[in-house]
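so ive been stuck on this for like two days lol. basically i have the seq below and the ligand is coenzyme A, smiles is in there too. i just want the complex predicted, nothing fancy, no docking runs or whatever. if the output looks off dont worry ill sanity check it later, just need somthing to start from for the group meeting slides
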Amino acid sequence: MNEIIISSLSEELMDETVKFISSFQSVDENFVAWLGYSPEEIRSQLGAETQPFKERCLIAVDRGVVCGFLGIHLSEEHSIARLLGPYVSLQKNWSDIALDLLKALKAKIPAHFSLVKVAFYAANVNCKQLYATNHFALYNAEKTLMLNSKGFTNSQKVINKQINFRSYQPTDYDKFIQIHPTAAYFTGAEVISRLNQYHRLVVAELDNCIIGYVYFEMLLSDGFAEICFLNVSPEFRNRSIGSLLMSEAVNEAFKLNWINHIEISVRVNNEGAERLYLRTGFKEKNVVIALQRDLNLFPWGDFT
Ligand SMILES: CC(C)(COP(=O)(O)OP(=O)(O)OC[C@H]1O[C@@H](n2cnc3c(N)ncnc32)[C@H](O)[C@@H]1OP(=O)(O)O)[C@@H](O)C(=O)NCCC(=O)NCCS
């Protein structure tokens, strides 16, 4: 253990680090949420962030070789810190290195932050044990469902002449913000700032009002699409609008021949949404568990 050095991620070790993280992401027992799968996707996620973010990404280096990574993403708006990891390659020293990485984050979490969150596949027993013994409590569990492009044929459209399904336009901003839940992973403003050729927002419009939307991201280097949000205003539910929005997203994504599959996550108790996805053809793939540590009760620094 003596020769393992913990430091901030440097540009010099960026390529090695993104390959290192990528090697864990495709194995359920090692998967941790929020970073992508391929080295290219992970690099673009780490690179898209600001310099202070890179300084909050820690690596463990054993005789010149990266053997651990733990990043932290700060959401100023919600005062929530999200942990990206840890990923540790040395099974023998897994918990020692993981704990050293966690402890080293102490200086990187602003004093006014009250919550630290992390999410990973239920199969990741190392993370489960580490966080369960360090004051992290379960607050959410989500099923990941998957729809393969193989064998998929354009879904049937139920014609609804009154409702217009179309791409978001800047003039929709206020109406969109009004119906987007405030506690969502991305705020409404963040969703809008992420829009580009592959990050798409399709809205359902009725009488000049936005009554629902679907936001999805198509990840070029990972070869799949992720449906991030599907939402219909409560007074317009149970009229097939959710199903139609879903079809819009699925048909749009599968137009691109590099999209192999589509993923969506749904809370385990959101049975209505899950039924909709199963009806669309999605199949259950995995369960992601999310844990959080309340820093008012357990200030960072107290680890076992
Ligand atoms: C999940 C959600 C998007 C579904 O939207 P929706 O517009 O109600 O979806 P649909 O109308 O297509 O389907 C809902 C139900 O209405 C039924 N339905 C659809 N059209 C109908 C009609 N004309 N008459 C009677 N029932 C109808 C569907 O069969 C379905 O029934 P089921 O729940 O028994 O399976 C919506 O409930 C919502 O926004 N929830 C909050 C946000 C959320 O949970 N999003 C998903 C996160 S993963």
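The chain has two domains: 4-134, 145-286. The domain at 145-286 is CATH 3.40.630.30 (Aminopeptidase).
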